[in-house]
Amino acid sequence: MTVIDEMARVAKGATIGSDVSIGPYCVVGPNVTLGDGCKLVGHVHLDGHTSIGPRTRIAPFASIGGPPQSVRYRGGPTRVVIGADCDIRENVTVNAGTEDDRGLTEIGDRCFLMAGTHVAHDCKVGNGVTFANNVLLGGHSVIGDNVLFGGQVAVRQFVRIGEGAMIVGLSGVRADVIPYALAHGPLAHLVGLNIVGLRRRGVTRSDLHQIRQAYHAIFFGDGTFAERVKRTEGDYAGHPLVGMIFEFIRTATRPLTMAVHRADLGDNA
Questions:
Q1: Over the chain, what is the mean pLDDT?
Q2: Can 122 be counted among the known catalytic residues?
Q3: Which of 122, 126, 144, 185 is catalytic?
Q4: pLDDT at 261
Q5: Is the CB of residue 208 less than 8 Å from the CB of residue 215?
């Protein structure tokens, strides 16, 4: 049974699924859709053309679907789409898209956005992504499935972060991060692979060894970066996980985050 607190404001035109709970002082705009089983705890503001998937829980003072923080936004009916089974905590902000991109800010299923997270206009976030407190995504960022962000990470606009990567807390990401990588630092570099994440997804010891070898060949082998990529791609043809790294590199249109040895970072490693 859907329960709407008498202190909440739900506009005419909003679409409310079954078994939805809307707590006190929530504001739900006329173009908002809430899937079955959604829970708005209280003081939640949903605006614009926003769709929230089934069973997603939104904590107090989250604001979703507001106008993008972009001087080029022209007031169009751009959207926010959030998937199923997400947990969106206190003070999270998710802005709508802009007319100059897809007009859509998108977050997948089973994502966990801890307090203070900001997802800017036109971002595309995959499934199973975890944002620790105060993570900031710049506009047009693309985040792969199962990425993990530590606290207070900042991601520059237009950056891609590949599937299964981990960004260590207090890092600033200014360039694309390959899948399965571990990135760290105020101006982040790759410092290895997200081995814990790979193990958690059931990657075998043999596959871990292959990914590690490919990583070192790409970033620390002989020759130029382009030569290393070409040579290593041939060596690992047919390996699906390593192949995702090469596909990510091949489709890059912006700079890549490059690797360093941890020893080179000194006390910051």
A1: 96
A2: yes
A3: 122
A4: 86
A5: no
Q: Which one is catalytic: 35, 139, 185, 197?
A: 139
pTM of the model: 0.96
Q: Each residue of 195-220: pLDDT tens digit?
A: 999 999 999 999 999 999 999 999 99
139 a catalytic residue:
yes
Q: Are 98 and 80 in contact, with CB atoms under 8 Å apart? A: no
Contacts of 131 (CB under 8 A, 6+ apart): 111, 112, 113, 114, 117, 149
Q: Kind and range of the H or E element at 208?
A: helix 205-220
pLDDT of residue 269: 47
How big is the chain by its Cα radius of gyration, in Å?
Answer: 20
Residue 236 burial (CB count, 10 A)? 19
Please identify which of the residues 43, 45, 121, 140 carries the catalytic annotation.
Answer: 121
Give catalytic status of residue 118 as yes or no: no
